[in-house]
Amino acid sequence: MEAPPQFPGAPKKSKTGLIIGGTILAVLLCCCGVCGIGGYLGKDAIKSVFQNSLGMVGCSIAMDEQRSALIAYAEKHNGTLPPAKVWQDSIKPFIQRNKEFDDPSQPIRVPNVTDDFCDGSANTSIAFNAALAGKKLDSVKDQMGTVALFEISGRGRNQSAPWKEQSFANSPKILSNAPRGWIRQGLRGEVTIKDQSGNVKPVPRVNEKANAN
Questions:
Q1: Residue 78 falls inside a structural domain
Q2: Which residues span the domain enclosing 143?
Q3: CB burial of residue 114 (10 Å; 0-12, 13-18, 19+)
Q4: Which residues contact 154 (CB under 8 A, 6 or more apart)?
Q5: Considering the domain boundaries, does residue 210 fall inside one?
Q6: How many domains does the chain have?
Q7: Has residue 209 been placed in a domain?
């Protein structure tokens, strides 16, 4: 007796939508906590929080891509971090970009290293901590806590400055009157944001290593 024919199983559904959806929800909760937004939000306010949160997530993913590239650059250059004036140009060959985020159907826009900006809705850029320029990796004792990249106001490539805390009140807004704080990342740490109370929290973001198939 012949074995019954084997039929291919149903195609697997992409996990990307669920991952992104969960990330967006986490960001909304995080940002509401960061900004102290409580109670009922109207439809327009929710839309504003949603859109501004997407920009922050995209910026955090781009920041992490560039932080990883900083380490990769140093490992190929005798353990030395790039010069401040051309840091973004220097790490470009070492960017390992997830092409999934270049899909125009994705709700989160992740700026490419060739872009001048970080969060387009907030008009901000990613800056390199100039105090680390040209330094040996092994000379940085606290690589988790030492800020390597941080968000600054304005647009432009190869932005750099010595790292210092910025005014919470002047940070990008989640709502018109609700600052969200500035994002930053340690040399080997995660992307974080400091709220008005001084608490440092991780920025929820899409898991770039998730299998979308």
A1: yes
A2: 16-202
A3: exposed
A4: 123, 124, 125
A5: no
A6: 1
A7: no
DSSP state of 80: B
Question: Which residues face 151 on adjacent strands?
Answer: 126
Encode pLDDT of 106-122 as tens digits.
777 777 776 666 665 66
Q: How far is CA 66 from CA 90, 96, 154, in A?
A: 11, 9, 18
Inter-CA distances, 81 with 135, 143, 170, 190, Å: 5, 13, 30, 18
Query: Which residue from 186, 164, 183 is spatially nearest to 172, judged by alpha carbons?
Result: 183
pLDDT digits (tens, 9 = 90+) for 139-154: 999 999 999 999 999 8
φ, ψ for residue 161 (rounded to 5)?
A: -170, 155
Q: How many residues can be counted in the chain?
A: 213
Distance of CA 180 to the CA centre of its chain: 14
Asked if 98 and 109 count as a contact pair (C-beta separation under 8 A), the reply is no
Give the side-chain half-sphere CA count within 13 A for 3. Answer: 3
Contact yes or no for 157/88 (Cβ under 8 A):
yes
The secondary structure of residue 177, as a DSSP letter, is: T
* Of 113, 1, 122, residue with least CA distance to 57: 122
